[in-house]
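Help wanted!
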Amino acid sequence: MTSRPLLLCLLLWPAAAPAKDSCVECHSVMDGKLQAPATAFANDVHRRRGFSCADCHGGDRNADDPQAAMSRAKGFAGKIARTAVPALCARCHSDANLIHKYLPQQRVDQYAQYQTSVHGKRLAAGDAAVANCVDCHSVHDIREVKDPQSPMHPLRLPETCARCHSDAAHMAKYKIPTDQLAEYRKSVHWQALARRGDLSAPNCASCHGNHGATPPQVASVADVCGSCHALIEDLYNQSPHRPAFAAMGAAGCVTCHGNHGVLKPSPAMLAGDKAVCTQCHEADSAGGKAAVAMAGLINGLGTALDRSDETLQRAARSGMEVSEAVLRQQEARQTLVKARVAVHAFRVGAVSEPAKAGLALTAETRRAGEGALKERDLRRLGLAASLIAIAATIIGLWLAIRQIEGTPPASVEAGRR
Amino acid sequence: MQVSERTRGAAGWLDERLGLSSLREFIAHKTVPVHSATMWYYFGGITLFLFVIQVLTGILLLLYYRPTTTEAYESVQFIMTRVAFGWLVRSIHSWSANLMILTAFIHMFSVVFLRAYRRPREVTWLSGIALLGLALGFGFSGYLLPWNTISYFATKVGTDMAASVPGIGPALARYLRGGEDVSGATLTRFFGFHVAVLPGLTTVLLLVHLALVQKHGMSSPPWVERKYPPSGARPPQMAFFPNFFLREMMAWYAALGALGSLAALFPWELGEKADSFASAPAGIRPEWYFLAPFYTLKLIPSHVLFVEGELLGLIGFGALAVCWAVLPFWAANRQGVERTRLVTGAAILLLFYLATFSLLGYYK
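Answered by r_m:
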């Protein structure tokens, strides 16, 4: 019986308490920059898995003598050159046999991907200023991506990218804009991520990739957006806009929606002063008229839904049971979403189909709401009549008591024992 | 003339078999004391009236209600939307349940302040307290029956509290739930309690309570008794029938008007169907008459010294309930001298506690 806990302790020993680490022992008692890595390393995922400084920097973690511990003969490399970092990390992270001991589902192609990225290509060309592994994942206190304190956690990733990409001085030599984060923070994607806390909402890496970070090419923008908005991508691919945009060299979705600052779409994008369609289509052209017609259908359904909502809410506030109609109303709301999505087919017929279905449903729910309000009024009328009858009965009873008792309080008899 | 003779003949026939004349005699001689607090006598009758409404509307609801997790909510929804006047029946059932508990509380406190629990009415008091307990049981079991989100989670909280009772707690909670958690078995069980067990017990206790009230008559408060000592004249009396009865009927009609207004203007909500896999919504709270103990338990820390907070709260409520139930036995000392100030103080404190903590529980 006692051997089982002992066995468990022995199995857990390497993970729970790493072997001797003279690097941490010495650097922990030093000052300033020399102490910082040892302090930060306490929270590092590698330390928790039993790795030590020597696994990256070389040297002998078991030697107490600093000379022996940092001996070149024992492979001590000192500070790792920025250009050497990705290859160093890849020594383990590209080794499936090693990585899968700790994380069986972890990918091991990060280095290969990095080499295809703009960062990796520039690094290979000798530009040490581009991002390497530690610029994004941090150094010495590397945490798992799911850890909210990790700079790679979905909520922190946009700021991490922006550390370089919003730095005008740093970006000057690459001649790329620095407003991406500012734009992204106006977008629906940011709203979903930061306001709603939806960690699956798109961040920089969702569109650009992470280790293989590359700006999507003009022809592939729709495919990138389509990785989430699949139905819209299908409609777009079958629409006349796909070949037209390709011929114009326009980059699919972003032509109308923008890239980093994707705003909540509305029918105003189709018709009116802020319409994006008018960038290419004249108002009296077939395209311009189709855009106005689609906007009309969507606006019409939206207005009908709002009216119906208002009626149902009024009925519900009056205490009427309209939950079935409210459920139908949700169905009608879905048709509005379908109609908005159908815009990407750029055909009036595609939009009018769900719009008509939605209008029919809305008419039904509105009738239910109005019916409930009528019944409420009828109930109140019935209540008024009942109250009059009850009041009349009470008065009748009072009169009867008065008649029985004579002038009050004559009926009160002085009791006899 | 012939009809009148025939009526007399029929009455005589019935009298011979049922002894109606003695009942008529009893009613004819039954009187009710008249004094400044006579109005409080009506609340017992109003409570009885609301109970009858409960029984009648409950029977109507039974025609359509189905006590299973897949059908309970839908059947109540059907009652409220499809059945003619179903909404009215359900709303009246729910509102009269609440008004009945309110009038039962008013009746109980009026009995305390008018000292109507004194000898020889101790058993009448005990039967009344038991009836109040049963009314609360009706409320607790009926709350779950629509199987909506609020009632589901409130029942979870309520039965969790039962699990904290020392010793028998876990077994009691399992018995109430019909398993480890609130489920279809709980719904069936609560339905059984609500429509069979509790009505049966209530009917028996109600008959005992009413019989005792008839046996001992209406109690006069001490100040009336002092004014009319046993050796002197009897306090002014009102004939029970028709004088008091007609007044009581006026009160019943007023209660019916209030009930109808509440049901028509504020129909009882159905809420959303319970989902046992969903997380508890914010602001879960029980019916108003359980709010005071509910809020008190929320205020008690998780541990007080070495005792679990919830357990301490339950012990406290148990002790309070027992003390209150045996009030007639400590309201006078061994020499029979009334502890008037102690009883009044305790009643005011209890009333203040219930009102304040119920309001805090509702608004916080």
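OP: Thanks! One thing I noticed: The first helix of chain B runs from residue 2 to 18.
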